Amino acid sequence: MAAPPPFSIEARGATDVGRRREHNEDAFLVDTESSLFVVADGMGGHAGGGTASSIAVATIEERVHAARAAAPASFAAPTAEDAAHFPAVLRQAVEAACRAIYGAAQEDPSLAGMGTTVTAALVAGRTAFVAHVGDSRCYLVRGGRIFQLSEDHSLVNEQLKAGAITEEEARQSRFRNIITRSVGFEADVLVDVVGLQLERGDSLVLCCDGLTNLVADEEILEISTSSGLAEAPERLIALANERGGDDNITVIVVKVDGERKG
Length: 262
Prior knowledge:
alpha+beta, Phosphatase 2c, domain 1, 6-stranded antiparallel beta sheet, 11 strands
């Protein structure tokens, strides 16, 4: 049975150093040809953080492009059998990034301890797959509502799930920047991967904690739905900067716009 026509995907991303940092340690990728979108928030100081996030984005891009070159038909109009392989493609790409970052740190003492968050979305046909490590996020915007697809790998989220703190206390916690899982700090990493069936009119929003620490989910929903694609990431970044911009801010908005023609 032939696979249904894939959706048309449009996306726009932007990053900003913020108002309190001297260097931008974030990196991102918007690759509409491969329908691959990545946000990485590096840590370990300017040299380490920026290096880790850049290695992560480049390695994931390289691995996904290699998989696409090996099976172009599977990416163009995947069957259900094809789609079953995409979680492994994304997971292995992030694992490869982890090894590359860790290896670079072993070779250069000035990069010791560097790591990065990674949130990557790959759209194949009518399905989106999201790979996630750390506290950068991926949201689904659908039918006037917003849903967080990724789960924060953070100390505050663990406290919240355990009932030790309230949501308000979580938002104000001085520990909110402590993550419990990262890419590259060790040679191996556990990668969360989720998949969902897309619907026409859906949007995905990928962003780092420089946005979500200052901008509420409901505000992300309002701006991503009321703004044109070209303006949405910049408006979200501007709002975070208006509220102090205490970290680097990176946002990608991906819009699903009906069936692809031709």
